[in-house]
Design goal:
The protein has 220 residues and is an alpha/beta fold. It contains 10 helices and 6 strands, in the order βααααααβαβαβαββα.
Length: 220
């Protein structure tokens, strides 16, 4: 029986591309490419730092990734633009169905929370900007561990916080690698495949797959 639903934050609850989209005119014709490079490098830096055992927090990885993305697309000497985009990243737009789904789960008596690479400060800012702070979700950050997903110790944070066995928790992420890590730890998982990506890690057919969080309750 599922007693708690735990969500990845970036890309699952919050649209990581909304920061650049909000300032697309200022970024110019390479806006979509800048946003994709920013996200790709942000994740790459977390994995590399974890493997090297040279931790830097997620905000540092985010800043470094943006510096690379802007330079890669000919916008490297625009500190004003970098500041604009980083400010927007602190208040990413939630996906439209998020609040309704979270409220439905709470109404069913299922605990909800966030498990993220983000720092506590980043998560608090994102939840406040998205109008979700009143839901009272635990915001679980990797920072006490100094390592990033998909390290098994990160998923253990959620099991310990909710005082539940892994099989009593459903973990939702838009990132296939994150779903694979959570599944390996022992969570029930749902892949929120927002980008209609092809199968990875043999997820398809093994875990429920949804194009958004709509319909999540029926999968539990």
């Amino acid at each position: 029986m599922i007693r708690a639903c735990v969500f990845d934050a970036y890309g699952t609850l919050f649209d990581v591309h909304s920061a650049v989209a909000r300032h697309a005119e200022a970024v110019g014709p390479a806006a979509a490419q800048v946003s994709q490079t920013w996200r790709t490098k942000q994740l790459e830096y977390t994995w590399v730092r974890s493997l090297m055992r040279r931790h830097a927090d997620f905000w540092t990885c985010t800043v470094d990734a943006l510096d690379f993305a802007l330079s890669a697309h000919g916008l490297g000497k625009r500190p004003d633009l970098a500041a604009l985009l980083l400010g927007a990243y602190r208040g990413l737009a939630p996906f439209p169905e998020v609040r309704g789904v979270l409220e439905e789960l709470k109404a069913r008596g299922i605990a909800i929370g966030i498990l993220s690479n983000g720092t506590r400060e980043m998560l608090e800012a994102a939840v406040e900007a998205a109008g979700l702070a009143d839901l009272g979700m635990p915001l679980l950050s990797v920072e006490p561990l100094g390592v990033y997903k998909p390290d098994a110790r990160v998923y253990r944070l959620a099991a310990d916080a909710f005082v539940l066995e892994p099989g009593e928790i459903s973990f939702q992420s838009s990132n296939a690698w994150d779903v694979a890590g959570a599944r390996a730890f022992g969570f029930r998982t749902v892949w929120i495949n927002r980008g209609a990506a092809p199968d990875e890690y043999d997820l398809r057919g093994d875990v429920p797959e949804l194009p958004s969080l709509d319909g999540l309750a029926a999968c539990l």
